[in-house]
Design brief:
alpha/beta; D-Maltodextrin-Binding Protein, domain 2; 2 domains; 41% helix
Length: 331
């Protein structure tokens, strides 16, 4: 053996030993899925504690701790309809240690806000869709409206039918606008700061109709205080199995199912995204997790990263077209 090959082998051995001793690069980016995760993971939730998205993130976080062997911290960063938390994650290192828990509002915001401070399509990589929750059209128990046909017959020019939603630009607001555009019904939007206040006024008869999440309305429907007319999902909800969909009642092609899922910054290594996807999918398949999600009003779901990204991008496009058509802007 000549001197030069010996020197090359020695340098290669030295480099290998240095890389082994150092572990992950200083930036924190994982070398690959074999080394991930080596320290705690943070899930940023774009809504306050106690809501459905927050509860879902905390349940997944506790199970991910068991699955991946590292603590998972849930951090609430509400504000600007979720844009503050989303911007924080978009600017985080793409290493799989900062995740974003979002719902369909993430796909609505691009059409509502002129300056998000990030690109929803380019600055994030989809990990997995974990659950759906439909919205439901409800009226007070004493209302003369018994079916969606009754609503369409009553919502005529010169006599708009008021509907309460969980807020401007929410999936529930857009559910009403979608019905109006698809059916010709004349509806008047009455926004509230959350589904809870909207339900209070609808139950009291202060507003003719409400469009709220099925999970928030289900107890009042079961108690006989509200009447459910239709769910917005493409198929009936397991939470309200006797309530027909909007499409079933003649509004063909109508569907708005609010999804919940995890994103990570763009450029996160595909091996890390795949490992997260597999871990969460395994959690969601557990019977105890499925039972807990259904009890909270969610329909458990699962997807590949590509499937979820395709769904997000399609919703961004359709919601942007809708918000532009109705002139909805928040800034």
């Amino acid at each position: 053996m000549t001197t030069r090959p010996r020197l090359t082998l020695a340098l290669s051995a030295l480099l290998a030993s240095v890389l082994t001793a150092c572990g992950n690069p200083p930036s924190g980016e994982p070398v690959g899925d074999a080394t991930y995760p080596s320290h705690p993971i943070t899930i940023v939730v774009t809504f306050p504690p106690g809501g459905g998205t927050d509860l879902l993130a905390r349940r997944l976080g506790a199970s991910l701790h068991e699955q991946l062997g590292q603590p998972v911290v849930v951090e609430n960063r509400p504000g600007a309809s979720g844009n503050i938390g989303a911007r924080i994650v978009a600017e985080s290192p793409p290493d799989g240690y900062t995740l974003l828990m979002v719902n369909s509002s993430f796909a609505i915001n691009p059409g509502v806000y002129r300056n998000l401070g990030f690109s929803p399509k380019q600055d994030f990589a989809a990990v997995i869709n974990v659950a759906f929750v439909p919205s439901v059209f409800v009226v007070p128990a004493a209302s003369p409206l018994h079916t969606l046909d009754d609503v369409l017959a009553a919502a005529v020019p010169g006599k708009p039918l008021p509907f309460a939603s969980c807020g401007n630009g929410t999936p529930q607001h857009l559910a009403g606008e979608m019905l109006a555009r698809a059916s010709g019904a004349v509806l008047q939007h009455v926004p509230y700061k959350g589904c809870g206040p909207a339900l209070t006024d609808v139950t009291a008869g202060q507003v003719t109709m409400g469009i709220v999440t099925a999970s928030s309305a289900a107890p009042l429907i079961a108690a006989g205080k509200l009447r459910a007319l239709a769910v917005t999902s493409p198929v009936r909800s397991p939470l309200l199995p006797t309530v027909p969909t909007v499409a079933e009642q003649g509004v063909k092609g109508y569907a708005l199912d609010q999804w919940h899922g995890l994103l990570t910054p763009a450029a996160t290594p595909p091996a890390v995204v795949a490992k997260l996807n597999a871990a969460v999918a395994k959690i969601v398949r557990r019977p105890d997790v499925q039972a807990a999600l259904r009890e909270q009003g969610f329909t458990p779901a699962s997807s590949s990263p590509r499937e979820f990204q395709t769904m997000i991008n399609a919703d961004i496009d359709r919601y942007t077209a809708l918000t532009q058509a109705i002139g909805l802007r928040a800034d």
